[in-house]
Amino acid sequence: MDIIRARQRPYEPGMDQFVLTDALLTGVADIDNQHRMLFRLANQVVDPATLAGGPLVFMQLLAFLGGYVEYHFAGEELAMRQAAYPGLEKHVLWHGLFCAEVEDIALQAQQSGVSEQLVRRVSDAVQSWLTDHICVTDRQLADFLVDRAAHDSIHLPAEQQLRDAGMIPSDFDLSAYSDKKL
């Protein structure tokens, strides 16, 4: 299954390392669209141009990725609670592990500086999350939501709904994640 492009390939300008292939689609448009954004942000973080831009650029992009990850996870988690998803606890655990990994990477970057090894760690964390989380856990969630919704459209909670539920910071601004680079 061609989930991601192999890291061993030499970098080619304009070639993303992480690509949302058909094998990664869940069939729930909101989840798939948010995964596309996560991939775009992850690709920016591991892009060699980011490392060449200096530690501040790397740290800003990593923080930006972390913020969007929290938003995405909050949306999934509120949807799971609202739908009484039986796999909620395990799914939330996966989310927590990935957030902890991103936080640890940011801490390592602050303490030891940004290096190619650290960028590789980001790449490995994202790759692991893609193969272990999206392909299995998110697909199980999507299947449950589709079965439960029958013929109704499935939507993740909106930004304001997440803010009102206290699941994202009050100053979170989704519009900052437009198609423009940071």
Category from helices, strands and their pairing: mainly alpha
The arrangement of helices and strands along the chain is HHHHHH
Whole-number average pLDDT?
84
Count of distinct strands: 0
Q: How many H/I helices?
A: 6
The portion of residues forming beta strands comes to under 5%
Task: Name the helicity range.
Answer: 55-70%
Principal-axis shape: globular
Low-confidence stretches: 1-11
Largest sheet: number of strands, sense, barrel closure: none
Task: Characterize the structure shown.
This protein is mainly α and 182 residues long. Helices cover 64% and strands 0% of the residues. It contains six helices and no strands. It has helices at residues 29-46, 48-52, 55-82, 88-112, 116-149, 159-164. Helix 1 runs antiparallel to helix 3, helix 1 (29-46) packs antiparallel against helix 5 and helix 3 runs antiparallel to helix 4. The chain is globular, with a radius of gyration of 16 Å. The two termini are 32 Å apart.
